[in-house]
Write a structure and sequence with these properties.
single chain
Length: 88
Amino acid sequence: MLDFLTGANATAALVAGLFFLRFWRQTADRLFASFAFAFWLLSLQWLLLGLTAPDYELRPLLYGIRLVAFALIIGAIVDKNRVRKPRS
C-alpha cells in the first residue's frame, strides 16, 4: 500500500508540474516555470524514494531534492513580489 501511495504522490506532483507548464506557456511568467520545475523535482524525489529500500543508508539524502524544490518555490514567490523600479 505504501508503494502505491508513493507512486500516487509522484504522479500528482508530475501532473501539477504539467499544469504549471501550461500556465507558463500561456503567460510566459517565470513564476509558473519555477513552480513547474519544482513540482517535477518533487515528483523525482517521490519516485526515488519509492525505488530505494527503506534501510538504504543514503536515503535521507534524497530529501535534499525536496529542500531544493521548496527553496525554488520560495525564491519564485520572492522574485514575483519584488518591487521593480520602472525604467526611465
